[in-house]
Amino acid sequence: MPAHFGPRPFSTKASGWYRDVTSMVVSFVTDREQLGRYLPSPFRVAEEAVVTITYACNRQVDWLAGNGYNLVAVSAAADFIGEQETLSGDYALVMWENLTDPILTGRELQGIPKVYADIQDHTVLHGDWHTSASHFGHKFLDLDVSNLRDPSEDEIAADAAARLGRDNPMAWRLYPGVGGFGESINEYTTFPSENRITDAWVGEGEARWQHLSWEQNPTQFHIINALADLPVLEWRPAVVVKGSTNLVVAERLPRVIN
Amino acid sequence: MPAHFGPRPFSTKASGWYRDVTSMVVSFVTDREQLGRYLPSPFRVAEEAVVTITYACNRQVDWLAGNGYNLVAVSAAADFIGEQETLSGDYALVMWENLTDPILTGRELQGIPKVYADIQDHTVLHGDWHTSASHFGHKFLDLDVSNLRDPSEDEIAADAAARLGRDNPMAWRLYPGVGGFGESINEYTTFPSENRITDAWVGEGEARWQHLSWEQNPTQFHIINALADLPVLEWRPAVVVKGSTNLVVAERLPRVIN
Amino acid sequence: MPAHFGPRPFSTKASGWYRDVTSMVVSFVTDREQLGRYLPSPFRVAEEAVVTITYACNRQVDWLAGNGYNLVAVSAAADFIGEQETLSGDYALVMWENLTDPILTGRELQGIPKVYADIQDHTVLHGDWHTSASHFGHKFLDLDVSNLRDPSEDEIAADAAARLGRDNPMAWRLYPGVGGFGESINEYTTFPSENRITDAWVGEGEARWQHLSWEQNPTQFHIINALADLPVLEWRPAVVVKGSTNLVVAERLPRVIN
Amino acid sequence: MPAHFGPRPFSTKASGWYRDVTSMVVSFVTDREQLGRYLPSPFRVAEEAVVTITYACNRQVDWLAGNGYNLVAVSAAADFIGEQETLSGDYALVMWENLTDPILTGRELQGIPKVYADIQDHTVLHGDWHTSASHFGHKFLDLDVSNLRDPSEDEIAADAAARLGRDNPMAWRLYPGVGGFGESINEYTTFPSENRITDAWVGEGEARWQHLSWEQNPTQFHIINALADLPVLEWRPAVVVKGSTNLVVAERLPRVIN
Predict the structure, then answer these.
(1) How many secondary structure helices (H) and strands (E) does chain D include?
(2) Domain count of chain B?
(3) What number is the average pLDDT over the span C97-111?
(4) Domain of life here (chains A, B, C, D) (predicted)?
(5) Which residues in chain B have their CB less than 8 angstroms from residue A94's CB?
(6) Per residue in C128-141, pLDDT tens?
(7) Is the terminal CB of chain B with fewer CB neighbours within 10 Å at N or C?
(8) Contact A240, A200 (CB under 8 A)
(9) The pTM is what?
(10) Are B94 and B116 in contact (CB under 8 A)?
(11) Would you say B2 and A94 are in contact if contact means Cβ atoms under 8 Å apart?
């Protein structure tokens, strides 16, 4: 929307490529039952109840004519249990972005639960990486990664193995009816991407959430507080990655009988 | 979305009231045929082919916990021709806002074609009112109102008469399918509001558009250029209004057989 | 600076008037000795060791061509003890503003210790007023005023009396030499203004500071922490004021022999 | 300022290093006489009347705790004619930055004529580099570089030769007295830096200025219009550079008898 001006004209310069992406990835093991409360029924928490928080500084984005934006995504390792098939991947709990354009296309074409936040460009200070996210002036997240080193051969192999058959981001595309009543759309999606890594380091990371009130963030406080309440049983190694990403067209997951 | 955290908890302090709204309203008569190209079939350009550009500085918005935002809306005087009934009002061509939260709810609950822009707080300088809108650093609109005076009795009466049976904002709620293919939702809506005016002045106004390229605004240039190309046959008196607005729940317009 | 393009040309529309100013004023009694540490020698903490925190939403500023900005000022009730004369007023401890232009003129023409912060437009929600200030993504101040009522006759009279001979904002204009060595300028100033109040209410207010680290705010953390450490012995009644302000030309205070 | 909280405490992590700097440099030959109008008397336009426009995307700035900012600097090739010595370099005509903190230190410690602008992060799209600068919502500069290639051996040698004895940025540190009357400081400075280049390309560049009115940019329109009026006799090859920069302490140039 608006649709009456015709489809958005695409330049021959547009593509799915994000040509300059820098990411900080922090993950932790949490309580399986508590995490499971936030997964709709065709999804099940994966064998390991891992929550992943990804900050990405996206630059040189072709479809945005070379402009960029920052995002903070939170996902849960999960299996989609379809009627006849199962898909293992990461279920999108929420994705904050600091630019409205990809929020709209992500919500509407892919069903990704994107919302807005002011996300600072990451800082790097003597090897310590940091970013934070706020909305309406109230900070809700600090993200730190430090003590970076090159990954070992074993880590590279383990990472490659872990991605095999698991690198499927998934989401729940749910639109209410006009005025908020009923449902207009209710389906599940997967939105794969192709990633080329030029640099990767392993280190220690941490995410620190701040509980907020309705008065402080009336549209997102319940999301933030739910995430802040997830217990951290164990921090996993954090990762910093540089490279590029090509968004592939999203697909609808097979319909399930709930 | 995200839906898995449950419905957004509403505070008892939330309501539909925008308690402090300042608006500049500029309108002009344009070419009927050219304007008609942007109205989907159940809509017809009204007897007078009037395009209205409304800037609003919304403050003290209850559902945003007292926060606010600015908007620039462009609409066409139009009649909705249903199978059995007709509704006269203003068809939403596009609405720019400088806050993502109301963009999402407006698109998803009401079908309003909202997109993002940096919209300056209006300036007032010795009776001259001004604002402008940009995206990705490129300005596309300047809006001016000046020579304000109190409205005459006749103008007040004419305005009241004009609103009778015409104060219906309408929109086309069209969502594509996953990945952008096909359609998930295709319907028409109306989203009435209750307005309380505390101050109103009449003056002269003007909107100046800048044509932009895909490189300058890859997501909106076709919208901006279409509006910039509408001929201005005659500027109507401009209006500055202060007051408050209560958003009423949007409704679906009766289905039509296209 | 730059000076080589000649003096900034003034429009006939420019003046010292800020035509639309909304302020929240919160003040408290603190420890006299601790506050005194931050006053240079010709200043002495006033009989009552009162610190005042003023948020102002400045709009329709003539010299900015009708644009506006927000500020948060912190000042100490103080007496300037000159060789031959004494001036009672408020010594400027720090002033945050969210626009660079008045920061530069305020520092350079008046010696006001202005620095930058992201200062939210104030929210008003069912009678509760709020704003906050952040820099580099880290919030350092929340300011609240609530339970507003009309001032009593006695309060109006007491306020007028208190202003008599005390309404003198003062500052220390200190510039280092090139590279930061030595001093280029070292003097004291006063920068009076003319205020026209259209509305005023009295209520309860509170300022909540957050201690920050160098990593969080490398240019201001020492200021913020000093203010956060001032003990609050008693909150004074808070005030919300609407009106306009005319900046009068700043003056140098009589030289003192230190 | 403020000075009463003591000197800004420096972390051991602070230094003069800007560890991640990406620059677009565009220069042109202009009319010698017209350019000379903007140089104060001890400066003389260099043999070639070259104006250089530099955009820099500064990241990982140590003294800002790893934060960064963008700048657009305009300088004139010039010779400082002292009583006993001459210094060849680039005289700072104006420097826009999108962060107030370095604007204050640059003006006050070095005398650089820094002012604020919204400066877009540069975009890169299929080899075309672009940025733009605005203030108060009104764009005043577009900067483009394209057709980049590796520099030739000759170009590298010529560049090194040109820098020999010429790499001296210089400025006029002029502060008025309190209230704007008279002068408090009037001197000339040089502010050298150490640059490490990791990547460099040569291409074609262009700067496009927009004339603005006082109403559009009341604090800078005279600067912008003066620069927009400089005739472009010939564009020089443009350069894109990546690397790091270490700010060295600024020095005062030898006093001259005007």
Answers:
(1) 4, 16
(2) 1
(3) 96
(4) Bacteria
(5) 2, 5
(6) 999 999 999 999 99
(7) C
(8) yes
(9) 0.96
(10) no
(11) yes
